[in-house]
Specification:
The protein is α/β, with parallel strands linked by helices. The protein is built from 15 helices and 18 strands.
Length: 386
Amino acid sequence: MSQIATTSASLARPEWTRARRIVVKIGSALLAERETGRLKRTWLASLLADVAELAKQGKDVVLVSSGSIALGRHKLGLPKGPLALEQSQAAAAVGQISLAHAYQELAAQSGLTVAQILLTLGDTEQRRRYLNARHTIETLLALKAIPVVNENDTVATAEIRYGDNDRLSARVAGMVSADCLVLLSDVDGLYSAPPGDDPDARHIPLVNEITAEIEAMAGDAGTELSKGGMKTKVEAGRIALDAGTNMVITSGKVLHPLRAIAEGCKVTWFLAKQDPVTARKRWISGQLEPRGTLFVDAGAERALAQGRSLLAAGVTRVEGRFERGDAVIIRAADGRELGRGLAAYPEGDAARILGHKSAEIAEILGFDRGPELIHRNDMALHRKSM
């Protein structure tokens, strides 16, 4: 049975209307004029107005934005064509200031507060840095701010950089357990062949699985301002779907592109087979090697069974050597494995605060990362053991 549907929907899919957390990737070609390098302020203002409307609906929105190199290279008078690594870094250093200022100014017009977050590959590959970045984004969202994420091109090297913000956006979507990832592109979705090369190319509105057939449809071409072609978007789709995040590719060349999705514009949906919470818990329980063990008392075991986080007061013993963000096993007093989770404190700090009330943590450690040794969102429990 084919994994491709070839009929278009007239209205937004429920995956869009039900999404509570959305990551939106914005490419350089959408933000910067090709010839002048000037920011497309009217377009960006319309996008941020869409974000404000989604926020009013109670949705969390994270933006993953390109554009710093495209803006900076023209300010520095750098030539057209590929740039040397040090030129890209210099252009990003100049462009990031302009880009951040534009986001701040135009977001304020829609009543939004924005925050800039610069990431490198290591921030999503190393669990401690991953956890730090995730908590920062979660805190900003809780405070009703809109995180604007970009690859930190000023310090990235050829060996550590993502190379395109399609895959970066998919990593971020998985990091924050997003329900939906939007890739705003210069085309309105995936086609059976690159539409610029084949006038008979068919638009593919729905992809249920990324197969070899789907990969073969993706073209490699990108513009001077955009390193990612359709190939990187399909690769981003694989990352997103593995994390339980639905992905949609649509044209960003129109004003109010997110409103257009809600109104049923032409798009390609990539549908995940599981939700982000299920995917994350499966990753924790089955793919991470545990580095330690936390033993809990009967009261904590009951609290875990009720869906609560693991607090220091309910932990009786700490074993192993682990850092913040490492996977640990949770065991009952009789040794039964109750589940696994990501430790919010390294083993030395965990041992100092075990059995203590949450209000005592700051006094004991001199700082406070929160009352949970393992947050419920970072935990996968074995229900048969509870």
